[in-house]
Design goal:
Blueprint lengths: L6 H5 L5 H8 L4 H6 L14 H14 L3 H10 L1 H7 L11 H10 L5 H15 L7 E10 L7 H17 L18 H17 L1 H4 L2 H15 L2 H6 L6 E4 L5 E12 L4 E8 L8 H10 L6 E3 L7 H9 L3 E3 L4 H4 L9 E3 L4 E3 L8 E5 L9 E6 L1 H5 L15 E6 L3 H9 L3 H7 L3 H14 L9 H24 L1
Parallel strand pairs: 1-5, 5-6
Antiparallel strand pairs: 1-3, 2-3, 3-4, 7-8, 9-10, 10-11
Helix pairs in contact: 2-6, 4-21, 5-6, 8-21, 9-10, 9-12, 10-12
Length: 473
């Protein structure tokens, strides 16, 4: 009803990303989901839940702090338009966003709700045409115990000072003396003094690059002080990226269509096994409206239970068998199997003279067939180097006994269809990179699994909407 509303038609063009986003999504679903979180009979009127939700969405899209996103909404007309505000309307207090997250979004299954909402839009706009999903896991480091509380504060105060020096190096003389103790309270006191000095220098504190780092340090000292004192994220667990590298934090398991729209996700602590999440991802994807015929993943998803599950549900599992399952020998070291004789033949053309089964009888797991060769022939064989150890009394060749499921999967991964579909897997690596580098998903923004799920929900909602806009654009 503002007399200035027509300003938006002049300063926010039709191809503006936030205008297109506003037109794409009917945000009234926020009312339905949060209806029970508000009192409808007494108290003063709450800030519009849709506006609060949109603030969090802007925060994720532009990867800014609460203070900076509110500050920008004072003068950025595209922000005000997206938030449904009159051009002259005042903005909220940044602390309201913290309360909204803790009080209104608590106990809401935000992750599934927002993914399902984007899937609903994608299906309505007919941008999903494939029936394949690509699955993978991405890790997120815990925020509060990668460094000690003192190190966190020192790191952020250092970045703040550096941004000030780039403008006026003489400010060094005005800054307080750095803390020399190991006490957290002394470092907090130093940071507060530093912030006071910078805030009193209005010409410097108004520079955007200074203001952003100042607000981040202020938010760390005030909003998160309780976490700094504890310096521990109780939910974060140690996971392994490789044999030699580990991380402390969380894992997000993602299923994505070939059109690069995330169809399902689960968030767990860092130590969980990748393969165990496959059934959940498939079922969530189907509940969201995806017709799943093919599942594409890495070797972590090729365990026997997943092969059985996908076969039972008439799906193709495009995931290579684990090297231990399919054997660790190179092609050069493999012997050929003579199916008529039921024996292996070595590279020199000598056939095994007998075989024996090793392992627990009646149990296929961990059983092997061992084939014995004539040692006298091995002693004079031209290929004996690297194959036969001089002086050995026997020469054997052992083969693990694969289950029927593993054997069929091994045959399937040699087909042209398997090889062609495997080429699609790179797409999910690019999506993980987008989440981390553009939307701050490399480090958790709060402590606890609930906070990580909320962060994941907003980040995935953001990248899905961006992708849908690109596909229909």
């Amino acid at each position: 009803m503002s007399p200035y509303s027509e300003i938006y038609d002049l300063v926010v063009p039709k191809d503006n990303f936030l205008r297109r986003l506003n037109e794409l999504v009917d945000f009234s679903f926020v009312y339905d989901e949060l209806n029970d979180k508000y009192c409808h009979t007494n108290g003063r009127n709450a800030i519009d839940p849709i506006r609060m939700f949109k603030y969090l969405l802007l925060k994720t899209i532009f990867d800014l702090s609460d203070v900076d996103i509110v500050e920008r909404s004072k003068y950025d007309m595209s922000f005000k338009y997206f938030l449904g505000m009159a051009p002259e309307a005042p903005v909220i207090e940044p602390s309201s966003l913290t309360k909204f997250r803790k009080l209104r979004l608590k106990d809401v299954n935000l992750l599934d709700m927002l993914i399902n909402k984007t899937m609903e839009i994608a299906i309505e706009k007919e941008v999903i045409k494939s029936n394949s999903i690509i699955v993978d896991a991405t890790h997120t480091k815990a925020r509060y115990n990668q460094k000690s509380p003192k190190e966190i504060l020192r790191d952020r105060s250092k970045k703040l000072r550096k941004s000030v020096y780039e403008i006026d190096e003489s400010m060094k003389k005005k800054f307080p003396s750095k803390s020399t103790t190991n006490e957290l309270e002394d470092e907090i006191e130093y940071c507060q003094k530093l912030m006071n000095v910078i805030e009193n220098e209005e010409t410097i504190s108004e520079y955007p690059k200074v203001k952003e780092k100042l607000n981040l340090l202020k938010e760390t000292v005030s909003d998160h002080i309780e976490h700094l004192r504890i310096s521990e994220d109780e939910d974060a667990k140690i996971g392994h990226k490789t044999r030699d590298t580990s991380f402390l934090g969380y894992k997000t398991y993602i299923a994505m269509s070939e059109e690069r729209i995330i169809t399902a996700a689960t968030v767990t602590t860092g130590e969980k096994n990748d393969g165990k999440q496959l059934e959940t991802l498939i079922e969530k994807s189907m509940e969201a409206g995806m017709d799943v015929k093919t599942v594409i993943g890495d070797a972590a998803y090729s365990e026997k239970g997943n092969i059985e599950y996908t076969r039972k549900n008439e799906m193709d599992l495009v995931a290579k068998l684990n090297p231990v399952t399919q054997g660790t020998r190179t092609k050069e070291d493999e012997f050929e199997f003579n199916k008529d004789a039921g024996m292996y033949v070595c590279k020199a053309g000598h056939m095994a003279i007998r075989k024996a089964r090793q392992g627990k009888k009646g149990v296929s797991k961990n059983q092997t067939d061992t084939y014995y060769f004539d040692v006298e022939k091995c002693k004079v064989c031209p290929f004996r180097e690297g194959c036969y150890k001089p002086g050995a009394k026997s020469k054997t060749y052992s083969v693990s006994i694969k289950s029927e499921e593993h054997s069929e999967q091994a045959k399937f991964q040699e087909t042209d269809y398997f090889k062609e579909k495997s080429k699609e897997r790179y797409k999910i690596e690019a999506k993980n990179s987008e989440l981390k580098h553009r939307h701050g998903y490399d480090v958790s923004k709060s402590s606890g699994l609930i906070g990580m799920e909320m962060q994941g929900a907003m980040a995935i909602f953001t990248v899905n909407l961006k992708r849908i806009l690109k596909l229909i654009g």
